[in-house]
Design goal:
Elements: H1 2-6, E1 17-19, H2 26-43, E2 46-51, H3 60-71, E3 81-87, E4 92-97, H4 107-123, H5 127-142, H6 147-156, H7 161-186
Parallel strand pairs: 1-2, 2-3
Antiparallel strand pairs: 3-4
Helix pairs in contact: 2-5, 4-5, 4-6
Length: about 200
């Protein structure tokens, strides 16, 4: 009802991959279908990948939430659905997670997957590769993998990029000091005595 009130038009749920924006090539689609089907058969979580041609003037958070409900993803009792939504025209990505999986796929982990797995591929123009990498990260996390939780912990504990930034700053400062010392020494007359 909310979607109708806002005039949002949702694509039909035709399978585990709904590629309205046509970002996914046939080989990638086939691999994704296999990955998501095997995961659902093994664990029962329903992961759906969707690309849309537009968000209808609303935020990706609102659109993803309403699309998730419209499609009724996951099992009703366990609320174990996940939606990976890509809106290329607005340059937005969202991972919408059912309540039953929020303990495993937290907001922080979802954000890390978007930032570290999906966005770098998108920046290089590889939309299909970014979507596949994101889906793999989601499935791995739901299957019990801890890679993305560990990345979040590393970031929160001041590791990762922050550590590299500090080391880089230190090396730059040391290089400047060494150059200044060398230049200072080169300006002194040889021997320190009188010269013509």
């Amino acid at each position: 009802l909310a979607a109708l009130a806002q005039g949002l038009a949702f694509p039909a749920l035709t399978g585990r991959i709904v590629d309205q924006a046509r970002l996914i090539d046939a080989p990638t689609r086939e691999r994704l279908e296999t990955l998501l089907a095997q995961h659902e058969a093994k664990i029962s979580d329903q992961v759906v990948v969707a690309t849309v041609s537009g968000l209808g003037g609303t935020s990706i958070e609102d659109y993803a939430n309403q699309l998730f409900r419209h499609w009724k993803l996951g099992q009703a009792k366990s609320n174990n659905g996940v939606l990976l939504l890509v809106a290329p025209n607005e340059r937005r990505v969202r991972i919408e997670v059912g309540y039953g999986l929020e303990g495993q796929l937290t907001d922080a982990v979802a954000s890390m997957i978007i930032q570290a797995a999906i966005t770098p591929k998108f920046r290089s123009g590889d939309f299909a590769g970014g979507i596949e990498r994101g889906a793999e990260a989601i499935v791995s996390t739901l299957a019990g993998g801890t890679e993305w939780q560990e990345r979040v912990k590393l970031r929160d504990n001041g590791g990762g990029d922050d550590l590299y930034d500090v080391l880089f700053f230190f090396l730059v400062m040391m290089s400047i000091i060494i150059v200044l010392v060398i230049m200072s020494n080169s300006r002194r007359p040889p021997g320190g005595g009188m010269h013509r």
